[in-house]
Design goal:
523 residues, mainly alpha, 25 helices, 59% helix, elongated, nucleus
Length: 523
């Protein structure tokens, strides 16, 4: 049997009995696929018809009732209309050209009828959308960045990762809040910090000298010299910021002679401006400059520097520290600078260079007393606790030893140091001999060692400036976090024990100046 209607494909029927069930199933499957192919053919014809129709523009409603009524009377777009990308892909595939996809046409060259409605709204404001975004996140730097700049900048940020990317956003940290904004404020400062980064990277890679660092330093110095010849820029904030970074470079990678030249120039600029109070409009520059003016030599281990102002409580009348929070911020800046000084601690001592420290037996034993007490009572240091009396005593002993060892570097400036008088000569040998003469008074106890160093026989032979300076260092570090105190103490003990032990101890890389700078939050 069969039945048909006009325009329809005839439908055939087959009778199935129980004897030919397998044939019936095969017929049913063939009928199913035949009907599916017919539906797909019908859909293809509908798409072809729709492609031949002119496109309808979708216009937004203006707001008037008449326009809305007119819009509502427009016939809806059929659901089967293909996506524009599908139409474009099909046309591109059928194009006879070798490169069927033409470049985009500027909106100004497209006929107005094609850009009516939503397409016109989207394209007309596209330049505003793109103009507000920045494809290169580094395009606000004071110089045009090259791949070399990117590499050194990444290294510099990685070095101070803990301070730059601390999760405690409410906590002040010197790198993120002071130095990094100053480093990006002008081209000279930026080149100086690139020199700093290049020198540090070269040292980590085992190279004693970095030509790349020298080139960046020369570029920074050249910019500062050009500013110095310009009366409008010679005393500017940018000039001071650049000199501060050049001072940092000379402290760690240059010479004390160059450091003194930049330091004297900075003091002259401050005096010509009218004093440190003229920097109050730039609080970052004010506290950074104030801290550098406290230095007379390029190391915080040298007792000739002036730390008394920031080791005590601030006075309301102080021109810098009298402002709310400036004492704390200045101490944080000092902590960062001090941790960097640990890299070069005793590095320029001729006595250490020529003879080493392994044969100074009693200095080594004093350090072992401090180290043993630290490991016995390390669990007493809590993350949020203030400094304990035991910890204060231990830090004071450690800083006393460091100051006396650093004194040998200062003594090397004298051509004829004279006889071994401990009060006037700061040689390591004199220090070790004094410890040996009274060994029984301090051995085995950090409390006894503290009493001997600050109140015993050796204290009477020690210049008062050195005693006070060791206590000032203790007070400032004692005001910092437990994390910072613990890190500095362990780093200093590891540095000193490495130098004083006959056999090199295994280096704990968790307690090196670089690892400390990378993780400590700067407070």
């Amino acid at each position: 049997m069969s039945s048909s209607e006009a325009g329809d494909t005839p439908v055939s029927y087959t009778f199935v009995t129980g004897d030919n069930a397998h044939e019936g199933r095969s017929h049913a499957i063939r009928a199913h696929w035949r009907q599916r192919r017919q539906r797909m053919e019908m859909q293809r014809r509908e798409r072809e018809e729709q492609e031949q129709r002119p496109p309808r523009a979708i216009l937004p409603g203006v707001g008037s009732s008449s326009d809305n009524a007119g819009t509502s009377q427009r016939p809806p777009i059929p659901e089967s209309q293909p996506h524009p990308r599908e139409v474009f892909d099909e046309e591109a595939a059928n194009s006879p050209d070798e490169n069927p996809v033409d470049p985009p046409i500027p909106p100004s060259e497209i006929p107005s009828g094609i850009l009516e409605g939503i397409p016109e709204q989207a394209l007309s404001k596209m330049n505003i959308a793109l103009g507000s975004s920045r494809l290169d996140p580094f395009d606000r730097f004071p110089v045009q960045l090259t791949p070399k700049h990117h590499r050194l900048l990444h290294h510099w940020l990685s070095t101070f990762a803990g301070m730059m990317f601390s999760m405690h956003t409410s906590t002040f940290n010197p790198m993120r809040d002071v130095w990094f904004p100053l480093d990006l404020s002008n081209a000279a400062s930026f080149n100086a910090i690139m020199a700093h980064s290049a020198a540090h990277l070269a040292r980590m890679q085992g190279f004693p000298v970095s030509n790349e660092a020298v080139r960046f330093k020369v570029e920074a110095v050249g910019i500062v010299q050009s500013w110095a010849r310009d009366p409008t820029l010679a005393l500017s904030d940018d000039t001071i910021a650049a000199i501060l970074r050049l001072l940092s470079f000379e402290r760690y990678w240059g010479s004390e002679v160059e450091w003194r030249i930049h330091h004297n120039g900075l003091l002259q600029i401050i005096e010509a401006r009218g004093g440190i109070t003229t920097l109050q409009s730039n609080w970052r520059l004010e506290i950074a400059t104030f801290l550098v003016t406290l230095m007379t030599r390029p190391s915080w281990f040298d007792s000739s520097n002036q730390l008394r102002e920031i080791s005590q409580q601030s006075i309301a009348t102080h021109p810098v520290l009298g402002h709310l929070g400036n004492l704390y911020k200045t101490r944080c800046l000092w902590l960062l600078s001090f941790m960097q000084d640990m890299r070069t601690f005793m590095g320029h001592s001729p006595e250490i260079y020529n003879h080493g420290l392994a044969h100074y037996t009693f200095i080594r034993d004093a350090l072992l007393v401090v180290k043993s007490d630290l490991y016995l009572h390390d669990e007493d240091i809590q993350a949020e606790d203030d400094i304990t009396e035991r910890e204060r005593i231990r830090l004071a002993c450690l800083f006393y030893i460091c100051v006396m060892l650093q004194g040998s570097v200062s003594q090397s400036d004298s051509v004829n140091p004279g006889p071994m008088d401990f009060h006037h000569s700061y040689s390591i040998t004199s220090f070790d001999q004094c410890l040996a003469r009274n060994y029984a008074q301090w051995q085995g106890s950090v409390q006894n060692l503290f009493q001997y160093l600050f109140h015993g026989a050796i204290a009477a032979q020690t210049p008062p400036s050195k005693l006070h300076y060791a206590l000032d260092l203790t007070n400032i570090l004692g005001s910092m976090s437990a994390e910072a105190r613990r890190g500095v103490e362990r780093c200093m003990l590891q540095i000193l024990c490495q130098a004083l032990m006959e056999a090199r101890i295994i280096l704990d890389y968790d307690w090196t100046p670089d690892s400390l700078l990378a993780c400590v939050e700067g407070h």
